[in-house]
Design brief:
Chain A: InterPro entries: Cyt_oxidase_maturation_cbb3. Chain A: This is Cbb3-type cytochrome oxidase assembly protein CcoS. Chain A: Keywords: Membrane, Transmembrane, Transmembrane helix. Chain B: One of its GO terms (molecular function) is ATP hydrolysis activity. The complex is a heterodimer of chains A (about 50) and B (about 700). Chain A is mostly helical. Chain A has one domain. Chain A is built from two helices and no strands. The longest helix of chain A is centred in the first third of the chain and has 25 residues, at about 5-25. Chain B has about 700 residues and is α+β, with helices and mostly antiparallel strands. Chain B has six domains: about 10-85, 2-Layer Sandwich (Alpha-Beta Plaits), CATH 3.30.70; about 85-220; about 230-320, Calcium-transporting ATPase, cytoplasmic transduction domain A; about 340-400 and about 650-710, no CATH class; about 400-435 and about 535-650, HAD superfamily/HAD-like (Rossmann fold), CATH 3.40.50; about 435-535, 3-Layer(aba) Sandwich (Calcium-transporting ATPase, cytoplasmic domain N). In chain B, α4 (about 125-145) runs parallel beside α7, α6 (about 165-185) runs antiparallel to α7 and α13 packs across α22. The chains are: A mainly alpha (about 50), B alpha+beta (about 700). The interface of A and B includes residues 11, 15, 19, 26 and 31 of A.
Chain lengths: ~50, ~700
Amino acid sequence: MNGLIFLIPVALGMGGLGLSAFFWAMRSGQFDDMDGAAQRILIEEDDEGVS
Amino acid sequence: MNAPIARQPIDAARCVDSRFTVPGIRCAGCIGKIERGISAIPGVATARVNFSAKRVAVSHDPELTDADIVEALRELGFEAQPMAENPLARDDAETRLLLRALAVAGFAMMNIMLLSVAVWSGADGITRDLFHWLSAAIALPAVAYAGRPFFSSAWMALRYRRTNMDVPISIGVLLATGMSAFEVLTGGQHAYFDGAVMLLFFLLVGRVLDAVMRDRARSGIASLLGRMGRGAQVAYPDGDVRWVAAEDIEPGMEMQVAAGESLAADGLIVTGKSRFDRSMLTGESAPVASGPGDMAHAGTTNLLSPVTVRVTAAAEDTAIADIARLMDEAGQSRSRYVRIADRAARLYAPAVHSLAALSFAGWMIAGAGVHQSLLIAIAVLIITCPCALGLAVPAAQVVAAGALMKHGLLIKDGSALERLAEADHALFDKTGTLTLGRPRPVSLAALSPQDCGIALTLSQSSRHPLSKGLAAALQDSGTIAHPVSDIDERPGEGMRGIYEGEAVSLLRPDLAEEGLSVAYTRGMATTVIRFADSWRADGEATIAALASLGIPGAIVSGDASDAVMTAAVHFGIPAQGGMSPADKLAELERRRATGEKVLMIGDGLNDGPALAAAHVSIAPGGASDVSQQAADAVFVGDALMPVALAVRVARRTMRTVRQNFAMAVGYNLLAVPIAMAGYVTPMIAAIAMSMSSLIVVANSLLLFRAAGDRR
């Protein structure tokens, strides 16, 4: 039973971590342009010749 | 017709139009409420709700301010904003709010479930109390946060003594949470926190799916828009040339319109001669030759050479604006449509509530006491949660919309799929819908393969519409480009170059010649390549496919020429030509009066009112902006077949939705007697709820395979 004193806060903390990570991702615009993000990977690094 | 009632004569000419976004519009009932409520205000001429955009357009006396109307909408139970503030950002914010609520509900659900499993497996005494307290600590803030979308909507409705679907949801969640909190305080045996949070989670999944589908289609369509004449290069008297947006163009300005551009305003041609494609405006397929002194209308496309146009009418006064006004009025019929989930909710909610009340009364009479009877009534409410209504429909529709998107068809919302499944007649526009809507060469056989290669190289280096059509056709026929040097383009004339020491050119022929053509010259030999608007290759197959689904087709065209009869013969379906936008609208009204549910497929500005008035409508990706906005769905590419595919998928989707409903009702028939008998514990409620939701989602996912199947 004493294990619960550690395990429950750990479980809640990890869940809370995931939740705050999701909120951070939403606020910083990670989901704003899902398709754009997929396309961006194909863009050439140097700016010359990119149309 | 639920046309707005005019309470007193209002001078129509003095009225001003205001638009408001009302994100709380969720059902047909809301539309009726708003339109009746706002129209009844003194000083309002008409009020019209645009459901898909969640917008209200009000035509009113200038003395009535926007703030008055916003206040009136609030009294009706809806939060509203004047449209000037960026409407897209507002919609986006709603999806974000729902996503955050979903994340919180998911987090809370998982943690409470973890604790609940321990309680179910037999934890008792102080451990159970501790776990219940922990559950309460997680659940109370989570319900307060994640339930906001439902509570605020229900509160708005209740405050003004109205009701909507969120009211029963909120009652269920709040009762379950409150009762469980009481149980925890008194050290009771059962807490329904898991059930309440899970209910919120599943309902939020449905709402998020719905919002995501709308956003995705909207962004897809937004990317197709904006290619039309949204502005013009204006030459100022001081020699300066600047880009001016369509709404800032004023009469008297001189627009320089290059070949391939659309006009942004009506005007008189000052210099230059060209041919104009008026098909967007009138449906005529043959381009019209115009020169100095002739009138050129906004929405037409300049096909041949650059012209200068002096603006005579801009923005609100153009021929396009008249069509837009007609369209605004046509759009209201569709808002009367009641979505299937709302139809089901009307039967479902009263049934569930009376069952819960009945079990409470029954157990009270049986002498179980208030506490016990209330617990059982709440168990009934939780076990009959409208998960099926909240999840069954959006899950199936999102899967179907995703599958259709892969085939190049963007569906704007779920109600479009529902209406598409009901369509029993199809009306096609001709130009741009049954045809490709852009000129393609018809006499390529006269050219040798080598000449084709040279013509391809020449045409590829030009942005002229005829060059683009020629290049596309040559590429389709597998022509390989031959290298041409010293290519030189002169606006209004054509392309010149040198091929192996010989002069080659693609030039504009004499304007006196009928139809569209270019003269291809190599050395001394000249060949005239003729252009025409060709049929979509799978037009006949699509019409046959629709007919096999029990949807006979017909053509309604604004084109007054013989081309309409040619189309009728070509496709073997009846056709009417020379129809104005108002005529098309009248034809749709006539068909609606006889009970037909018409699927309208059209692209031009002249089809806009018909697209808005039809039971359901589809526009090609090359259509005018207004038509794409008026239509329920947009298909991209040269194939017409997505239209038939959409009908087939829509019908399958509705079959799946009905299956989902049947499963949900069947599950309730089993579960409700158990709940009313008082045998439902929080564990049984949680298992039953998640099982029914999983089955519904799994059944919807099966659609993806069915929808992907082209046959």
